[in-house]
Please model this.
Amino acid sequence: MQTNHFKYILLSFLLSIINLIDLKAQNTPVEICGYQAEIDKIIQRQPNFIAIQNDWYRKAYEAYLESQSTKRNIVADTILYEIPVVFHVIYNTVSQNVSNALILSQLNELNLDFRKLNADTSRIRSIFKPLAADIRIRFKLADIDPNGNATSGINRINSSVSTFATNIYGNYNEDMKISSNGGQTAWNPSKYLNIWICNMEYPNYIGITYGFATPPTGSPNWAQFQNATKDSSDPKSGVVLHYKLIGKNNSLAPANYKEGNTATHEVGHYLGLRHIWGDANNPNSQGCNVDDGIFDTPNARDKNYSCNPNTNTCIDAVDDKPDMTENYMDYALDGCAAMFTREQGFMMRYVLNNFRTGLPIRTIKFDTLVEFPQKLVSIYPIPTKANGILNILVNSNDNNEKFMATLFDNNGKEIFKKELQANQKTELNTANYAVGVYFIIVKDEQGSIFKKEKVILNL
Model:
């Protein structure tokens, strides 16, 4: 009798553990952002897409350096980019029919985040505060539809489709973008940012995708490839968001996803940003060798879900910094996310000026010739050919000021040191250096570091 009683207790205990594991699995997102799935689709059409993307990242960075080294320095609010948005609410149940109030709340959060007006900038650690930027992009509800009629910018579709997820693991289709499949065909993607709000949750799910975005594919040489489409005509271009994630303090939102930052993250992808860890195929072996293409975001091996300030997944040999969990392009959103960097901002504006050219309304308030607000260092081109010339230029209001540039290899070994004169370009012949990753540190005469740059030498 005692033996049977013990067996019953043991069986009950095991069943409770199994149920607990199952409950946790059902409520734990495995891959909350569908960015990699969207990249995989593009690569099926064009296997060289990552190389193409890397190329325009390089061009954008060179343009950034050029903009920093010119005396015609356009101040922060000179050019403002305004993007008209249409929200397509695809609903099957009353709860999926997201309210106007939540949509307006989401629009407000996007504008606060992209203009660096969000109150949670107080979260940003002092080491990263100088990098946080006003992106100079704002979003407004479209007031004219593609037929020229007045619109609220909120388009509601009562659909027969209960969910656009396809299995318990978070996979999804794109039927929400097709009217004949229970969704809504995009309004002209060259004139509107289309945001589809729909159900991305599968019954008894293990994983879920909370949102995904189509990255820009209209690079200068993209059109030469067969079956390639440019953003101006691609009806699937836009952002998709799970209806429970819309707005701030949505009562249906899971814990850690109530601040409206999922939309900010996905719009960042839509405007050309990668995840800050670079999306390595195998983070354990490749993570620290794969970069997001943005030089002022520290190297990271993999995504972060927590705000631990001691997280430092990649130890750089020179001027090492912790993971930037405050960045909107990581996964640690609520409680962490509070910033884009200056170079991320430049990249998104570069995309608007080169790929999504018809999308924004550009407002120029004023343009003025100003003195340098601070010392500006330009190191270019990056990457540099191993038998080429690397240029270093420090701009300053004081022509007599001197600086010191030191080049380190990836192991932190000093291999080159050169004195620099303000406002005079210094050329470094790279013929004597092996292909690889290097770092340049520039110090002022007091020995203070005000520039550290990763330099890549390739063939």
